[in-house]
Design goal:
Blueprint: H1 34-39, H2 54-62, H3 68-84, E1 91-95, H4 106-118, E2 122-128, H5 130-135, H6 140-158, E3 164-168, H7 175-186, E4 188-194, H8 199-214, E5 218-222, H9 244-257, H10 275-278, H11 298-307, H12 312-325, H13 330-333, H14 346-351, H15 356-366, H16 376-397, H17 420-428, H18 434-446, H19 451-464, H20 469-479, H21 485-496, H22 511-518, H23 523-528, H24 549-554, H25 564-579
Parallel strand pairs: 1-2, 1-4, 2-3, 4-5
């Protein structure tokens, strides 16, 4: 076979990567439904090109297009000799991103060791980018949580005489040059950061590696976010796993063979050198305010401060309390909606106030040193934390899911609906399906939702309403305090049957059955739907069909906007038709 021919490196495609082998059709051609998707508010054209073609997705899968993680690896490898020959300069910098903690922060501790070895100060850096927040649909609740976490982080660093310099950078593309400028200003020759695995971030870090090397600065990106580094697990055929269960077995086996991957790194100690004299002004830095586009009303700020106190100390307290008080019963109770049977640690994972490694290591210790045997509650919880790793591994290997595409690109042939009025009813919790509406009201009030109801409402949006899953995915990111792209995308892929889950498309959640099973007495529904609090007994699950229509109508609760049985039939027909094309 002739060798694969690639475009010249200076001919980028619209999504920023490079083309595939000669003879392919133009892989830049968007899918026919791109115009409808754009009008429905799915593709943010201010930042991204139109929807890519399915052929282009296949080129990523086949390895004909360079994945962003490979671009970063190449940048590190090709600059390695030059970077390693550089001296340390007058300071060492750690760039904080989604790792807002001192404990078990590998890049931070490596930066501290370098500073200590050379007796120069360590500087913390955080750059907030409103454009990044907009481009990534980051919710105001998560921005607020991040800024509050930064405040706690600054206090903790200050006790060690480590300054944290923070600033707003409006132009997201200017961040690499700004970081270089700051390092030069501080005469720092070594810059550390933990890798983020989304496409934009990987490409930015690859650019920064080369930019820094060309200016005599060693930028060292570090794997830290996942318990097991993406790319470490492969099937017997050498392929990356696309199904959770075999991936999880491999994950467990890898950790047993490589226990050092669960070793929690130390916190930095007192800052070496004379930082309070040398970098006095940096200690007076203020946490940037939230921009108007991402600012919360005062009432919501106060509510979220109470619901989700910020910082790694709160995260550790919650982790230990959950494992001690609820961990044993987690396997049996985790899907029940009344009460609180889950850890609600997802905001802390998303911001990096708590590492997944620390969580798994702590649960393993409490479970008498075991990951997959002894107590089923702890075993199940560890497997749930592992899902975060899994979805990031998927993201790294199939990067097109960051580009408004689902894991199974052939599902873009599905005939989706784009009815804004119906979508708004789903957002407002006014669909006439109590379990769906209660969950959506909880999201609006708490910026958080139970994982069980995340599955229910995503299935309802995509199967009962036949609305494009990507609009629901974006809405979640715009409202969740724990919005994490990989996990959110994975969840929506599951609910819409367009993701990595091997179950076929005919798995469609029945809202009534889910409601009766996981909220049997209707406590969850009554809490979030005041219109139905006077409805007694089982009628709460289906008031218009079980004799409670008068109460529901009187209190303004809507009738069901679709018939589930008819919607199910429609969904099955459309999925089947799309896959036959």
């Amino acid at each position: 076979m002739p060798p694969k021919t690639k475009r010249k490196a200076d001919t980028p495609e619209p999504d920023g990567s490079h083309a595939s082998k000669k003879g392919r059709p133009d892989l830049r051609q968007p899918h026919p439904n791109a115009k409808q998707a754009e009008e429905f508010g799915i593709v943010l054209r201010e930042f991204y090109p139109p929807e890519m073609s399915n052929e282009r997705c296949q080129a990523y899968t086949d390895g004909d297009l360079e994945r962003p993680i490979e671009t970063l690896k190449k940048a590190c490898q090709e600059t390695a000799d030059k970077r390693q020959a550089l001296d340390v300069g007058s300071a060492v910098v750690h760039w904080f991103k989604s790792d807002l903690r001192l404990s078990d922060n590998r890049a931070l501790f490596t930066a501290y060791q370098t500073a200590k070895e050379h007796q120069v100060p360590l500087i913390g850096l955080y750059i907030a980018s409103p454009q990044d927040w907009t481009a990534h649909s980051t919710s105001p609740a998560r921005v607020d949580f991040t800024l509050r976490t930064l405040q706690r982080l600054q206090q903790d660093l200050g006790e060690l005489d480590i300054p944290l310099y923070m600033e707003l950078q409006e132009n997201r593309k200017a961040i690499p040059n700004r970081i270089l400028e700051l390092c030069q200003q501080w005469q720092a020759k070594h810059l550390y950061a933990n890798i983020e695995y989304e496409v934009d971030e990987l490409r930015r870090e690859a650019k920064l590696v080369r930019l820094c090397a060309n200016n005599d600065i060693n930028f060292a990106p570090t794997h830290d976010t996942c318990v097991v580094t993406p790319g470490q697990l492969a099937s017997g055929q050498g392929k990356q796993y696309a199904v959770y269960t075999p991936w999880y077995r491999s994950w467990l086996a890898f950790l047993k063979e490589n226990p050092d991957y669960l070793e929690v790194s130390e916190e930095p100690g007192s800052n070496p050198g004379n930082p309070r004299q040398q970098f006095k002004d940096l200690f007076d830095c203020k946490v940037p305010p939230a921009p108007k586009t991402h600012a919360l009303p005062d009432e919501e700020k106060k509510r979220f401060e109470k619901l989700y106190p910020a910082g790694e100390h709160e995260a550790m307290q919650r982790l230990n309390k959950f494992l001690e008080e609820k961990g044993k019963n987690y396997e049996a109770q985790r899907s029940m909606l009344p009460g609180e049977h889950t850890s609600v640690l997802s905001p802390y994972f998303a911001s990096g106030a708590l590492s997944a490694r620390t969580a798994v290591a702590t649960a393993k210790r409490i479970n008498k040193g075991h990951l997959d045997r002894y107590d089923p509650g702890y075993i199940t919880w560890i497997s749930e934390v592992a899902w975060r790793d899994f979805y990031k591994h998927v993201l790294v290997n199939w990067p097109f899911i960051c580009m408004n595409k689902c894991f199974k690109p052939e599902h873009t042939n599905i005939e989706w609906e784009y009815d804004q009025e119906v979508f708004q009813a789903w957002c407002d919790g006014k669909t006439g399906f109590p379990i769906v509406d209660a969950a959506m009201r909880q999201l609006r009030h708490s910026a958080w939702m139970h994982n069980r109801t995340r599955m229910v409402v995503s299935s309802f949006l995509t199967k009962d309403l036949m609305l494009d899953w990507r609009r629901g995915e974006r809405y979640f990111m715009e409202n969740l305090i724990d919005g994490d792209f990989a996990s959110n995308h994975g969840g929506w892929g599951f609910g819409s049957s367009t993701g990595v889950d091997p179950q076929p498309y005919f798995r469609i959640f029945n809202p009534l059955r889910q409601s009766e099973r996981f909220d049997p007495e209707g406590e969850y529904i009554r809490h979030w739907l005041p219109e139905l609090r006077d409805v007694s007994g089982k009628a709460i699950h289906e008031p218009y069909a079980r004799g409670a229509a008068a109460i529901a109508q009187k209190n303004g609760y809507p009738k069901p906007i679709v018939d589930h049985a008819e919607s199910r039939t429609r969904a099955l027909e459309r999925f089947k038709s799309a896959l036959q094309k």
